[in-house]
Fold this protein.
Amino acid sequence: MSEWKKMKLGELCDFINGGAWSDKEYVSEGIPVLKVTNCKNSGFSLSELSYLPYSLEQKYIQNKLQRYDVIIATVGSHPNLVNSSAGRSVIANSFVEGFYLNQNAVCIRTKDEDVLDQLFWGYYSKYYLFQHYIQMRGKGAANQMRIAISAIKEYPMPLPSINVQRHIASILFRYDSLIENYQKQIKLLEEAAQRLYKEWFVDLHFPGHENTKIVNGVPEGWEKKKVREIGKVITGKTPSTSKKEYYGGQIPFITIPDMHTGIYPTSSQFLSDLGANSQSGKFIPANSLMVSCIGTAGLVCITKEECQTNQQINSLVLNDNSLLYYMYNTFLSLKEHLNNIGSNGATMTNVNKSKFESIEILIPNNSISNLYNKAVEQSFRGIKTLSSQICLLTEARDRLLPKLMSGEIAV
């Protein structure tokens, strides 16, 4: 790498600021908008999107994302903070191609693909040397730091030969191509389970519905139960962060950012046995449901192994595991309700344990819940397997990237 010539990034790339349109311009359906909050370390979280009307397509056309565009968050929390966002870099893939980029981020696009390959630049933007350079130039408070675009333009970008650039990009892209393919498969499996849920439990076209009486809007034999009657609720807790010996072990510690990684989340933090046992009542077994209830409410995940969570998450350990997939989709449908009961005029949504336990859920009779469980079980197993594969591929790619960029592995 020391032999690679260097040029300022501002000479190599076009920098396109995210659009600074007002919230009043958003509509319920239209052109999807990508915000910094949708850009995660693990990729894109697209469960909550805003939209611009199609009539504004030409007005803001400069903000339309192309595949492989590099998106860098220029505003956010300081890199010293866990799950910091300032300086975070993501590469636009097929999931967000055509979206319009919002403010507090910049799109960086190479001017000449024969000088700087766009995909190579995308992977280099994740390299620790570049990340450190731009993050150290951020200014402002720890929870709201700003990185000047002028500082990013000054970065001395190493330029190996275009063939080397493309070779490095192709090696890393093999991993991302597989990851994206698996993510699409997960999306299809999840959508299939949700369609069946809607058909059976929203439209009430479940097997045998023709011969089932409806009493007060509820199928005969079904009953309403409070969450506390369906299982045990455990509100998470964070062990003392001043005790380093509580962290760095093998026990997953799930936080809200982790919940954006998928139905079966990948933990970014781990507790030691000492740390987890300091709050032994907070263990959550596999096949339990986690629901975010503070700040960002309504994210729903399933535990793939024994773990603990922080205080922003209420978990439900079911009395009857045949209700697992039914309850997963039911909690997904309660996002608006969770936000309503957790607002109370406060600046941050907070659904405490008592409120969460008191939510009423319509529970189908055993035969219907068992049928649904069997109908979607294979889909959820597939999702779990694919999620594990994505985790392994991500780890392998992230180990390989710095070795390729530093020249440790010659290409």
